[in-house]
Design a protein that fits this description.
Layout: E1 7-11, H1 16-27, E2 31-36, H2 42-49, E3 54-58, H3 64-72, E4 79-84, H4 104-129, E5 140-145, H5 158-178, E6 183-190, H6 196-199, H7 203-210, H8 222-234, E7 242-245
């Protein structure tokens, strides 16, 4: 990796939207470091993406020590882009059918991974970006992955929706915090995306999921998320925004 290479960090880059983002960036000349929990096959996944421009590092986004150590390994390199895709999406109602309350630890775990974890990586990477050379007054871009659930959370999504609403609310104040340093902060709020897990479901299930999408009436393609992320990275006037990527979907209660 040369010091002048366009370097991106992608959390959750071993699967789903993170992997699609990493692959798209690599195909467009970026170097990518993946932060993920996939100890068993992370290195293999990174090498398959690109044998010389992609690397894997085992990182728990909720750990200050692991995130700081991973970013410190990149000292001397200019991280120009962070795409935070690491997250979880469990479903659990506030009260179950027996009237029992959701365990507080279950709610806190989702908030800690999706919201606190994204902030944790963003704050450490921002400190590294602040040392970058300025290119047209820009030193770096941070993109968090929110969700339409942050606006229209469904039944059983209290924890997930709250975590994604937090990321939506994070965009503008963090962008304001980092503006004097030339670092931009945005979020993407995907709708129903055709990740490998969803595409493995029967056609009838996929059709039902897509039924509330206005146009085009289908699941989103992960590469569409990746294309939007790269556009945000390259368009220096997009800042402090959360952009919906959902085909005009508005989620029903269930």
């Amino acid at each position: 990796m040369t010091a002048s290479a366009k370097l991106a960090v992608v959390t959750g880059g071993c699967s789903g939207l993170g992997q699609a983002s990493a692959e798209f960036l690599l195909a467009n000349g970026w170097h990518v470091v993946i932060f993920d929990l996939n100890k068993d096959s992370g290195d293999e996944i990174a090498q398959k993406m690109h044998p010389s421009n992609c690397w894997f590092d085992y990182v728990d986004v909720t750990s200050s020590a692991l995130v700081e150590a991973a970013v410190n390994k990149l000292a001397g390199k200019e991280i120009r882009l962070l795409i935070n895709c690491a997250g979880v999406a469990p479903a659990k109602r506030t009260l179950n059918r027996e009237g029992e309350a959701m365990p507080l630890d279950d709610f806190a775990k989702v908030i800690n991974i999706n919201l606190v974890g994204s902030f944790n990586v963003a704050r450490v990477v921002a400190a590294a970006m602040a040392k970058n050379s300025s290119i047209n007054e820009d030193r770096g871009c941070i993109i968090n992955t929110a969700s339409v659930a942050g606006y229209e959370g469904q039944i059983g999504q209290t924890a997930y929706a709250a975590s994604k609403a937090g990321l939506i609310g994070l965009s503008l104040p963090m962008a304001r915090d980092l503006a004097p340093l030339g670092i931009r902060v945005n979020a993407i709020a995907p709708g129903i995306m055709g990740t490998p897990m969803l595409l493995a479901m029967p056609d009838k299930v996929q059709e039902a999921l897509a039924s509330n999408v206005q146009h085009p009436k289908r699941l989103g393609i992960p590469e569409e998320f990746a294309k939007l992320a790269m556009h945000i990275a390259e368009n220096s006037y997009i800042n402090g925004e959360t952009i919906r990527l959902d085909g005009a979907l508005r989620m029903p209660p269930k």
